[in-house]
Design brief:
The chain folds into 2 domains: 1-113 and 318-440, 3-Layer(aba) Sandwich (Rossmann fold), CATH 3.40.50; 124-294, Glutathione S-transferase Yfyf (Class Pi), Chain A, domain 2, CATH 1.20.1050. The protein contains 9 helices and 17 strands. The radius of gyration is 23 Å and the shape is globular. The chain has helices spanning 36-48, 123-126, 129-143, 146-173, 180-218, 247-268, 295-315, 333-343, 432-435, and strands spanning 2-11, 14-20, 24-29, 68-76, 79-87, 94-97, 100-101, 114-117, 225-230, 279-284, 287-288, 321-325, 348-353, 366-371, 374-379, 394-396, 398-399. Strands 7-6-5-4-1-2-17 form a 7-stranded antiparallel β-sheet, covered by helices on one side. A 7-stranded mixed β-sheet has the order 8-12-13-3-14-15-16, sandwiched between helices. 36% of the residues lie in helices and 21% in strands. By secondary structure, it is of the alpha+beta class. Bound molecules: adenosine-5'-triphosphate (ATP) and magnesium ion.
C-alpha cells in the first residue's frame, strides 16, 4: 500500500500542508526544525491513532489552535481510501473514512498500515516495559483491528478493578469486606486479559524469526538477537509444546493467580497480574540487551524490531508504509547501504533527512524539499504516471516560523471539523499543479 496524499490542518508547526507522495521511495529533506518529522508523525497518527513522540494529543495541535486535522489518500489494491481524523484534546476525536463519519476513531485502525522507525525507538531497548508492550500491541492491532476493542475493554476493566481493590482494601482494614463485586472484575480482567495475552504470545512467535533475521541483516558482525515474551504469570503461564496456550487456559491461569495474589493486591490497591505487567525480553547473545547492549547494538535491535514488524506485516500480504525518520544520519556508510538495500523494495518508504547526502544513492525516488512553509518536489525518478508532469512543479504551503505560532492570526472557526468543506479537499482531483493555489 502507499500514501498518495497527506493533508494537515493545524498539526504541530503546520497551519496547513498538502504533501503529494509517490509509491516507492520519498525522501523529505530540509533543515532541522522545518517540520519534516511533524509530517510523518501525522501519517503515523492516522495509522495508530497515537504519536510516536508524545503520549498525549495536546502537543500535536498547533499552538494557538483548538483542533488538528490529518487526512490521507491511501492506495491499496488499486482502490483509494480517504482517511481523516480530527484531533481535539479533551474531547472525543472524530474520524472519517471516505468522507463518512465513523462511530469511533478506532474504526480507522488497520486500514492504513505503517511501520515508523525514529530515534525515539531507542526506548524500545532502553526504556520501560510499557514501550515494548506498546510496540507489540501496535503490530497486533494493525494485523487484527478487533483487538483494539479487546485492549480498550481490558484497560477499562483494569481501571475499575484497581479502584475497587483500593476501596475494598480500605474496607477490609476497617473490618468490613465484601469481595463479591471484585470477583466480577476478576472475571472481566481475566477474560479480556487472556485474549490479549494469547494474541501477544502468538504474535511474538510469528515476529521472532523476522526480528532475528533483521538483526542479523542490520548488524551481521554482532552476536545473535532473540525475543521472549515474559508474562506476569511467570511459572504459572500454561505451556503448550510447539504452540500457544488457548485463551480459556490463560484465563483460568490468570484467575487462579488473582486468587493467589488477593491479599497483596488488596494491600497495594493494584492489579498485580495480567498483560499490563508483562514485558518482551530482548536477548543479545548470552543475555538481556537492556543494561548490556552498546549504543550501536541497542540501535540495531530497535531497528530490527521495527523491520521485523514490517517483515511480518509484509508476509501477511500487504506492505505497510515504511517510515524512517532521521535514521541515516546515525549510521556509518556500510550500515547505511545495508539498511537501504533492506528497504528499497517496499511499496512505499518515507525518509526524512536534514542532509540529502546522508541518504544512500540506491534509494532513488522522489525528493521533496521541506522548508519553512514550503514543500517542493525537487525531482522524481519514480513518478507513477509519465503524464504526471505536475509532480515536478513547486507547491507552497503555510507553516509558522519557529516561535511565531501564537501570533499567527488564524481563524480557528474556519477549521471547525463540522464546518470543513470537503469539496475543497477532493482527493480524487488532487494534482500537484492544482495545489499551488492553496498557498497561504
Ligand atoms: N504544537 C506545536 N505548535 C507549533 N509548533 C510546533 C508544535 N509542535 C512542534 N512544533 C515545532 O515544530 C518544529 C519541529 O518540527 P519537526 O520535529 O518536524 O522538525 P524536523 O524538520 O523533523 O527537524 P529535525 O531535522 O531536527 O528532526 C519545532 O520548531 C517545534 O517548535
Ligand atoms: Mg525530525
Amino acid at each position: 500500500m502507499y500514501t498518495r496524499h497527506l493533508g494537515l490542518v493545524d498539526f504541530r508547526s503546520w497551519t496547513s500542508a498538502e504533501l503529494v507522495l509517490t509509491a516507492g521511495v520519498n525522501v523529505l529533506v530540509g533543515r532541522n526544525g522545518v517540520g519534516k518529522t511533524n509530517l510523518v508523525e501525522a501519517l503515523g497518527y492516522l495509522a495508530t491513532l497515537s504519536s510516536h513522540r508524545v503520549a498525549s494529543d495536546q502537543p500535536l495541535i498547533r499552538r494557538g489552535a483548538d483542533q488538528a486535522i490529518v487526512r490521507a489518500a491511501v492506495v491499496h489494491d488499486n482502490r483509494e481510501l480517504l482517511l481523516e481524523v480530527a484531533i481535539t484534546p479533551g474531547k472525543v476525536n472524530k474520524a472519517r473514512l471516505n468522507r463518512a463519519a465513523l462511530t469511533r476513531p478506532r474504526d480507522l485502525l488497520g486500514i492504513l498500515r505503517t511501520v515508523l522507525f525514529a530515534p525515539e525507538d531507542m526506548a524500545l531497548v532502553k526504556g520501560d516495559p510499557s514501550e515494548r508492550r506498546r510496540f507489540l500491541d501496535e503490530v497486533l492491532v494493525m494485523r487484527s483491528p478487533r483487538l483494539a476493542g479487546t485492549k480498550a475493554d481490558y484497560d477499562r476493566a483494569l481501571k475499575q478493578r484497581n479502584s475497587l481493590l483500593k476501596s475494598a482494601g480500605i474496607a477490609r482494614r476497617s473490618g468490613r469486606s465484601d469481595l463479591s463485586l471484585l470477583e466480577v472484575w476478576d472475571e472481566q480482567l481475566a477474560g479480556h486479559g487472556a485474549e490479549l495475552l494469547a494474541a501477544r504470545l502468538e504474535l511474538v512467535e510469528l515476529l521472532r524469526p523476522h526480528v532475528v533475521a533483521a538483526y542479523a541483516d542490520v548488524a551481521p558482525e554482532s552476536v545473535a538477537a532473540d525475543l521472549r515474551y515474559r508474562s506476569s504469570l511467570g511459572e504459572a503461564l500454561p505451556v503448550v509444546a510447539g504452540g500457544v496456550p488457548s485463551a480459556a487456559d490463560l484465563g483460568a491461569a490468570l484467575l487462579a493467580d488473582m486468587g493467589r495474589l488477593r491479599h497483596a493486591e488488596l494491600e497495594r490497591g493494584v492489579s498485580l497480574v495480567g498483560p499490563h505487567r508483562d514485558d518482551l525480553d530482548l536477548i543479545l547473545g548470552p543475555g538481556p540487551a537492556k543494561g548490556y547492549a552498546s549504543h550501536g547494538e541497542s540501535w540495531s535491535f530497535a531497528l530490527a524490531l521495527k523491520l521485523g514488524g514490517f517483515g511480518l506485516l509484509r508476509s501477511d500480504g500487504v506492505d505497510p508504509v515504511l517510515i524512517l525518520d532521521d535514521v541515516f544520519a546515525e549510521l556509518d556508510r556500510s550500515r547505511r547501504n545495508r539498511l537501504a538495500a533492506l528497504v528499497a523494495d517496499a511499496d512505499q518508504v518515507l525518509i526524512t533527512a536534514a542532509v540529502d547526502e546522508d541518504v544512500p544513492g540506491v534509494l532513488h525516488g522522489s525528493r521533496v524539499s521541506v522548508q519553512q512553509g514550503i514543500i517542493e518536489r525537487v525531482g522524481s525518478e519514480t513518478v507513477d504516471d509519465p503524464e504526471d508532469v505536475g509532480a515536478r512543479s513547486a507547491q507552497e504551503y503555510t507553516v509558522d516560523p519557529p516561535g511565531s505560532a501564537e501570533n499567527t492570526a488564524v481563524d480557528n472557526t474556519a477549521v471547525d471539523y463540522t464546518a470543513v468543506d470537503y469539496t475543497a479537499v477532493d482527493y480524487t482531483a488532487v494534482e500537484d499543479t492544482a495545489q499551488s493555489s492553496d498557498r497561504g
